[in-house]
Amino acid sequence: MDHISVDLRGSEISDIKLEQGRFELTFSRAYLIKTMTGSLEKTRWWQAGALVIEEAELEGVAPGGPQRCAGGDIEDNIYTYRDMVPVPLESRGRVGCRLQLQGVAEPLIVSGTAIRLEMQDVPKYIEHIRPDA
Known about the structure:
Elements: E1 3-19, E2 22-35, E3 42-54, E4 57-59, E5 67-76, E6 79-82, E7 84-87, E8 90-101, E9 108-119, E10 124-129
Antiparallel strand pairs: 1-2, 1-5, 1-7, 2-3, 3-9, 3-10, 4-9, 5-6, 5-8, 8-9
């Protein structure tokens, strides 16, 4: 696989917490899209994991879990990833996230000095994604 990313849209969140400057958004099912160079087809997988932001500042109040993500942005210095998180992700600097959760009016906005994606276990296959004919 040449490229893997988390598709934020529809990913399932089991917990959201901010403790002692460490923000952690725990995915019970982060939906992964895997792409191979030269192939028009992609594959869809799921895997548990967490998005962690250090020295985090949260705007407003973090909603409790479980939640489902409707999309949003991951900020990594000069880069903004829309509706996805690259795998792997580990960066320092001006980082954060602005996520929209299904059924929640206000976006979840967090900024910090370091961001990383910590995946657990192994990905589980869901389906092949073929381009429309």
